[in-house]
Amino acid sequence: MSSPAIADGPSAALHRSSPGVPPASERPVTPRMPTATPTATPTAAPTRPRPTTKRAPVGVFRLVIAGAIAAVTAMVTEGRLGPRDPNVTDPTSWWGILPSAPPGETTRGVLAGLSALGVIALCLCWAALVLAMLAGRVTTRTGLVAAFVWTLPFAVGPPLFSRDVHAYAGQGELARLGLDPATHGIATLLTSGAADGSGPTFVRAVDPRWTLTHSPYGGAAVALEKAAAVVGGGPAGTVVALRVLAVIAVLGLILGSLLLAGRAPGRRAAVAVLVAANPVVAIHLVGGAHLDASAAALVVAALLLDRAGAQQGQTATARLGTATAPAPEAAGDTTVDPQRRTGLVASRAARWRPIVAGAGATGLAALAANVKATVLPVVVWLLVAHLLLARRSAHPGRAGAVRLVVDVMAVAVATVLSSLAAGFGPTWIHALSTSGALSTGIAPASLLAYAADPLLDLVGIHPVTAVTLRVTRGLCLVAAAVALVLLVVRAWRHTTSTTTSTTGFGRSTPTLARPDLAVIGYGGLAVALANPVVYPWYLATCLPALAILAAMFAEPAAPAASPGAVTTLAREPVRMTDRPRFVASRVMGWTLWGTVVVSVWLCLATLSPLAATWHLLGAGGLAALAVIMLLALAGAGRAVVSARRRPAAPTSTS
Question: Which residues are 556's β-sheet partners?
Fold first, then answer.
């Protein structure tokens, strides 16, 4: 005879686990005294859990404020410096920020020094924010707030640190007048400008080095420049329209990067800090209004669409397998259930959705390549990635051929539409060497040439500097091509099954589980640094991929033991005995700090010349400045150490 069921609860569990205890029906009923529990104590009210806060710590808040002050200082002082070439004039005073005449030598020394200090301080605040992010003290919201207040001064201020946007405006005016920028220099506007006489104003605003050269940008870039010229209606209005376009593109870049990072809070926070708050994005993509922001936004959109297509492909494959499986009860029956036939047709139709989505991603990447030709490796990678997906199908040859044909059609459609929107053919291909006509001292090719000349002199070889530079440029381009090929081959050899997680990274694979990010991030960085000329905005297309790869270094490797505990790969070193995870963590760490170092290095390389500042300071001023900088670095180091040692406040209860 079974005993009555005992009510669920702690006492019931105790009775079930105690041997020899008679059933409840056989025990005498005795009055029981109420037992005191923590929540039923009459003298103490039940305590509610304290709501978690998402406020930034005080130290992080101070970093954000200090960075905002540095950004305003850099914007105002760099703007008051005016054009670096005295023969260049701005088409507008930009609310009185830009001077009407070049400043004197003393004023120039003060402004250049303050501008450099502002940029250096902003870069230091960003590096400190990265360290705080690694310590778990920066949320996604905090990173976005820092990005907003640091970028706002450059969004409302004049174009700075580059006059490329004025060249864009001149090329857009040429296209508006029906002149191909790939075959006509901006100086053509002096004689063939608009009837209102604005042609010379366009020309005088451009750096003299680019007035006679031809545009190396594709049809999509010319179409954007042409649209800005139509909307702007003049030199100043065109520049403003291009600035608005840059801000919109950066917003799309940040949003797409956050979506590409997945739902993990650690990755989103890292992307918010490494991409949105990056000084390269604030100073150059927004402040300089470069078209690279539009190309980068298109690349991120292509990756998002390609990921969605891959997920649809997995779903369609599963549904198709279910639809085509024979039903047990239908054995020997020649009739087909209409409902089953409908499901089969729907599953087969769904099989084409990932192919169309992948072709759309390839088309978006082709549009980005029609803005900047350096994005072409992304198009090649998407073709390879779709062939990898086809290799997993039941008929790899047929699926690969279909994928390749559809992708090539998407590239052709994107190129034709770009040309039609611009109004010209692919003449820009012949002008791709325009950007390589000059050289920048920070380019690895230039640095190699500078280092090779003295070594060759020691062994008795005295080549012309131009010859050495040409050889080093070729070597750098070959190295970038080799790096791209190795990354693609590695992806082809190791991508054999779908091992990625719902967030797209695959924790089960300790090596880099996202070959698309590796190819676009590392390969794009190699292409950017291998160029004969290197500028900060060249990082735009590879920065999101690098940031997401680096975010894996900052995300929790395992659930925290307590709500306030922070367990990250950065704070919990991986031992060499776990070699795959050890190598992965080291690569991710190098990616993070490499992104920080390259970003800061390129930002500092574009500062205004400081010769007037050194002359103004003199020997005593330079010594005092060195002491101040050492004290500032010591204070920053102490603050960073204390911030890393202090435990982070919990941001969620889950």
Answer: 568
Write the DSSP string, 171-209. Answer: HHHHHHTT--TTTS-GGGHHHH--TTS-HHHHHHTS-GG
So what's the pLDDT on residue 452?
84
Largest CA distance in the chain: 112
154 closest CA partner among 212, 62, 73:
73
Q: At what angle do helices 219-232 and 164-176 cross, to 10 degrees?
A: 80
Closest by CA to 123, choosing from 251, 282, 10, is: 282
In 3D, which of 144, 98, 151 has the Cα closest to residue 122? 151
Rounded distance between C-alpha atoms, residue 532 and residue 476, angstroms:
9
**Residue type, position 407, single letter:** D
Whether 534 contacts 290, CB under 8 Å:
no
Six-digit token string for 26: 């056989």
Please, is 649 exposed, middle or buried when counting C-beta atoms within 10 Å of its C-beta (0-12, 13-18, 19+)? Answer: middle
**What pLDDT is attached to residue 369?**
94
Q: Is the pTM of this model over 0.90?
A: no
Integer distance in angstroms from the first to the last C-alpha of the chain?
Answer: 45
Q: Which residue has the tokens 């797409």?
A: 256
The letter for the amino acid at 63 is L
Other CB atoms within a 10 A radius of the CB of residue 412 amount to 12
Backbone angles phi, psi at 556, to 5 degrees: -60, 130
Question: Dihedral, CA atoms, 588, 589, 591, 596, nearest 10 degrees?
Answer: 150
Tokens 């104590």 correspond to 41
Output the pLDDT for position 493.
76
To the nearest 5 percent, what fractions of the chain are helix, strand and coil? Answer: 65, 0, 35
Q: Which helix (H) or strand (E) holds 164?
A: helix 164-176
CB neighbours of residue 417 within 10 Å: 17
Burial 120-132 (b: 16+ CB within 10 A, else e): bbbbbbbbbbbbb
Contacts of 201 (CB under 8 A, 6+ apart): 91, 234, 235
User: What are the φ/ψ torsions at residue 568 (nearest 5 degrees)?
Assistant: -130, 160
Average predicted confidence (pLDDT) for the chain: 78
The 10s digit of each residue's pLDDT in 209-268 is 888 889 889 999 999 999 999 999 999 999 999 999 999 999 999 999 999 998 888 889
Are 589 and 553 in contact by the 8 Å Cβ rule? The answer is yes
Phi/psi for 248 (5° steps) reads -65, -40
> Within the chain, which residues score under 70 in pLDDT?
1-56, 312-350, 435-437, 462, 464-465, 494-513, 554-584, 632-633, 635-654
> What is the C-alpha separation between 303 and 96, in angstroms, rounded?
42
Task: Specify whether the CB–CB gap between 170 and 189 falls below 8 A.
Answer: yes
Distance CA 306, CA 515 (A): 13
How high is the pLDDT of residue 580? Answer: 55
Q: What are phi and psi of 510, to 5 degrees?
A: -70, -20
Instruction: Please enumerate in sequence order all residues whose Cβ is within 8 A of that of 499, keeping only pairs 6 or more positions apart, or say none.
Output: 506, 508, 509, 513
How many whole angstroms separate alpha carbon 254 and alpha carbon 260?
A: 10
> Residue 602: its pLDDT value, please?
92
- The one-letter amino acid at 122: L
**Rounded Cα gap, residues 71 and 44, in angstroms:** 53
The interaxial angle of helices 140-156 and 235-261, nearest 10 deg, is 170
